[in-house]
Structures are given as structure tokens and as C-alpha cells.
Amino acid sequence: MSKSDVIAPSQRDPLPKIWDENSKIGEMLRGRRGLIVGVANEHSIAFGCAAKLRGFGAEVALTYLNAKAKPYVEPLAEQIGASMLLPLDVSQESAVASMFEQIKAQWGYLDFVIHSIAFAPKDDLHGRIVDCSRDGFLQAMQISCHSFIELARYAEPLMRPGGALVTMSYYGADKVVQNYNMMGPVKAALESTVRYMAHELGQSKIRVYAVSPGPLKTRAASGIDHFDELVRMAVERTPEHRLVDIAEVGRVVAFLVGGAASGMTGDVIYVDAGLHHMA
Q1: CA torsion angle for 176, 179, 181, 187 (degrees, to 10)?
Q2: Which residues of 64-73 are buried (b: 16+ CB within 10 A; e: fewer)?
Q3: pLDDT, tens digit, for every residue of 53-102?
Q4: β-pair partners for 222
Q5: Cβ contacts of 22 within 8 Å, gap of 6 or more
Q6: Active-site choice (170, 171, 209, 270)
Q7: Is residue 218 very low, low, confident or very high in pLDDT (cuts 50, 70, 90)?
Q8: Active-site residue identified among 64, 154, 171, 180
Q9: H and E: helices and strands count for the chain
Q10: Is residue 180 among the annotated active site residues?
Q11: Residues 19, 63, 84, CA angle at the centre, nearest 5°?
């Protein structure tokens, strides 16, 4: 297979470099407001979601990790016309509480929360699961999984009926993927969390989903050892011999938070160009 056989993301659905009226897709999400956590730069899955949700008419609030990260996120927030840009370190519950207080004060309600963050200490991630440290495993679980629970707890009182919570998973939660290592069990816990939260929050008319994209060249993915091998494997095995892009993930997320997905909850939705079907 040659490089020319791989469909470049820019040929499918380019994201706007500068936001303007021509970037709008429709009004499916007009009047809906949501929080998107995890934008680090223009390659982030969270940014793909933010751009597409804005394109469908939603108002969005974005977060940044710290002062070092803010210069990378702020221009993106300006480009898509985000209503709020808030600091958030999910390892500090006080930061989570403060962020939701600001959202409550400015908006008063939420319709969706998109959680697109994951972390594991490099030494633990690159080693065998049986060799990972207790502290490293707990940190990975807290940031990658428990933070979604915490966001849900604070968001629930603000969520209007029909609201949705969406997190990001990966195929390695279900199958052993070489070099994914300890993040496999962490993502498996996240997917199980989605099912239990869907059950618990159903009475509040809140739906919960995990979206599982194929390998994407994000900053978080760069921490995975031999990540280029995962990319080559995906291109070789998918039916169309290609990767997905963040815009494709964003469109699926727009469908999930919109009314069209009202009959679904607790699901893991794969956006990986069919990779998970291939033996």
C-alpha cells in the first residue's frame, strides 16, 4: 500500500483555521451549551469536538490546564468563538468546583460535557502492567477515569433534561494492544463507569457515552511507546486503509449530544474506520 492510498484528513473534512460564518454546518445544536475538557492544541480530539459542536450552533466553554498551556488554547477558543475559557486541573477538586461555579454564574445550566483527557506517568506506561507502581496506576485512574465521575457529579445539578456526558476511550480497553499497557485497564474502567453512570443518571434524563476513536496523532498519544506502529497497523487493517481525524470524531459527538441520539445511552461508539471489527 502506498502513501497515496491513504486518504488525508484534510481531504475529508478540514477544520476551520479561522472561525467565520462559512464554518457553520447547521443549527441542530442551537441553544445548547456545553463544557469541553481536554483541548491542548489544534490536534486535540477535544478541539475537533469543540469546532464541530460550534459548527452545529452550540455554545461551548473550554478549559486549559495551567498558565503554560493557556497560550496554546486561548487562540483556539477565540477562533471558534468559545463563550468561556476556564482554568482546570482535574487533580484538584477545588479547581473542578470553582470551574462549575463560574459556569453556573454565567450560564445557569449545561446540556453536555465532553471529557477528553488521559494521563499516565511515562515510566509506568512504558513498562509491563505487572511492574507499574501503585502511585502511577492511581494517578492514571484519577486523571483518566475518576475525573469523568467528578465532572458528572458537579454537572448533574446544572444539566437540563436530555443532557449528555461523553468521554473518550480506545480499543485497548477491550483487546490487548501492544504498548498500550496500563492504559488498557484504565480505559476498561472508564467504559464500565460509563455504563453504571448511564444507569444512575437515567432518572435525571442524562445520557452517558464513551467514544472510541482509532489512533490519532495527539499530544497524549505521543506518550505511548512505539505509537507510530499503532498508526501503521491501523492504516493497514482498516477497510479503507486510513486513519480517522478529529473532525470525524467531533461529528459523532455532535450526533450524541443532539436529540437524534435520545434512544441511546451507556454505549461505547467506535469511530475508528472499522478497525475494531478486524481480526
Answers
A1: -70
A2: bbeeebeebb
A3: 999 999 999 999 999 999 999 999 999 999 999 999 999 999 999 999 99
A4: none
A5: none
A6: 170
A7: low
A8: 180
A9: 10, 7
A10: yes
A11: 60
Task: Give the span between the Cα atoms of 145 and 164, in whole angstroms.
Answer: 17
Q: How many residues does the chain have?
A: 279
- Give the pTM: 0.90
Backbone dihedral angles phi then psi of residue 124, each to the nearest 5 degrees: -75, -40
Count of CB atoms situated within 10 Å of the CB of 63: 23
Would you state the cell numbers that stand for residue 203, as one nine-digit string?
432518572
Q: How many CB atoms lie within 10 A of CB 34?
A: 28
270 catalytic? Reply is no
Q: Is the pLDDT of residue 122 over 90?
A: yes
- What is the sign, positive or negative, of the torsion defined by CA atoms of 142, 146, 150, 155? positive
Going along 65-187, which residue ranges are E strands? 84-87, 110-115, 159-168
- Measured between alpha carbons, how far is 182 from 126 in angstroms, rounded to an integer? 8
How is 41-101 classified by DSSP, letter by letter?
STT-HHHHHHHHHHHTT-EEEEEESSTTTHHHHHHHHHHHT-SEEEE--TT-HHHHHHHHH
Give the per-residue SS3 of 163-176.
Answer: EEEEEECCHHHCCC
Q: For residue 167, give Cα distances in angstroms to 76, 196, 202.
A: 21, 14, 17
Contact 33, 59 (CB under 8 A): yes
Q: How confident is the model at residue 222 (pLDDT cuts 50, 70, 90)?
A: low
Q: Which candidate, 124, 142, 111, 94, places its Cα nearest to that of 36? A: 111
Sheet holding 159-168, edge to edge: 84-87, 59-64, 33-37, 110-115, 159-168, 206-213, 268-271
The whole-angstrom separation of Cα 82 and Cα 151 is: 19
